[in-house]
Structure formats: structure tokens, C-alpha cells
Design a protein that fits this description.
This protein has 1 helix and 15 strands, in the order αβββββββββββββββ. It is mostly beta strands.
Length: 194
């Protein structure tokens, strides 16, 4: 008799290794049961809208997002921009985020949090950034998702308010414009219900 242990597709990422005490490993194990569940499919929700991504210095926007009730929010995906011409470390864009579940009148954080706290820098790909002044010096890099400690169930109307403020500055404290994409990973409940 052989024992077959299911593996989550998230574990197949060549940059993810299972180490004792590592956060991602524990979260992947919790999500593994849902990986092949016919009742859910992975869907990515992006904020803000395409025409709002290019944000002016210190700009603030609120974006309304509707997620199918019955779904589970499990992660955030934040692309990192890498400056290869300086010693600057790779990081997502600099901005703050607040998520409010409108149906529950519940804010996810006591105060808006920096994008750095919602990222998980484990590179998965890189491409040149379109529109960068020096094409050879900037790369857009995909990253493994930041898995939440517990999936958030979507209830009621499924409406969420995503508040984003651009906080990118130069060395002198002057605000700089940037393109922002904030992405939620969702296990969306299927219409057929499994």
C-alpha cells in the first residue's frame, strides 16, 4: 500500500522551499486542499482601474471592487520594480493601502499599511519596464504572492473599498509619480458549485 500526499501547485515554484518554521510552507499546506477543489478557481482582482494606475505624486484614490460572495481572499500579489543601475534593493512601488469590507464595515488594518508589508519578494520572472527613462536600468519582476495567515471569506454583497495613496519620494522628500497595481488573490467560488 502506497501513501500519496497531495502537493499544492504553489509548492512547484522552484524558488519556494519547504523549511521547518517557514510561514509560506504552513500557508501552502492550508491552501493545498483547495488547489484541485472543483468548487473554486483562482482569480486575480486588480486595483485601481487601468485608467487610474498612473498616479501623480502623493495622489490618493478609493477604488470599489466587487468579489463574488462565497469566495476566499488568500493573498496579495505586488510586482517589484528593480533598479539594476544602482544598489537600490528590489521592492514593490511605495504606497499605502487600506482594504474595507463594505458588507461587514470592517477595515483590514488599523491604519493604512505600506506596500512593503504586503509583499513577498521571491522573484518568478523579469521584463523591461515600458516607459522607463533608461530601459537598460529597470526591470519589472513578478513575485510569489504574500499569503495571508487566514483566508478572508467574502460575504454579503462582496463589495470592498481599496484606498491607495502614492508615497514615492526622491531623496529630497519631493513626491514622484508612479504606476501602481495592487492585486488580490482570490479563490473564487464556481457557479456550478462543485
Amino acid at each position: 500500500m502506497s501513501l500519496i500526499i497531495p502537493a499544492s501547485p504553489l509548492s512547484l515554484n522552484q524558488l519556494t522551499r519547504d523549511y521547518w518554521g517557514q510561514f509560506d510552507t504552513a500557508q501552502i499546506a492550508q491552501l493545498a486542499a483547495l488547489a484541485n477543489d472543483p468548487c473554486y478557481t483562482i482569480k486575480l482582482y486588480k486595483a485601481p482601474a487601468d485608467n487610474q494606475e498612473d498616479m501623480a505624486a502623493f495622489a490618493y484614490i478609493t477604488y470599489g471592487m466587487q468579489i463574488t460572495p462565497g469566495s476566499l481572499i488568500y493573498a496579495t500579489y505586488l510586482p517589484a520594480v528593480v533598479n539594476t543601475t544602482t544598489s537600490t534593493q528590489s521592492a514593490p512601488g511605495q504606497y499605502t493601502v487600506q482594504i474595507t469590507d463594505v458588507s461587514l464595515d470592517h477595515k483590514f488594518f488599523d491604519e493604512p499599511v505600506t506596500s512593503l508589508l504586503l509583499s513577498n519578494f521571491k522573484p518568478t520572472y523579469q521584463t523591461a519596464v515600458a516607459g522607463a527613462s533608461d530601459q537598460s536600468g529597470y526591470l519589472n519582476m513578478g513575485s510569489f504572492p504574500n499569503l495571508w495567515c487566514a483566508a478572508h471569506p467574502v460575504t454579503g454583497s462582496g463589495m470592498f473599498d481599496i484606498e491607495i495613496q502614492n508615497t514615492l519620494t526622491d531623496g529630497d522628500g519631493a513626491g514622484l509619480p508612479q504606476r501602481i497595481e495592487f492585486i488580490l488573490g482570490v479563490l473564487e467560488v464556481c457557479e456550478h458549485g462543485g
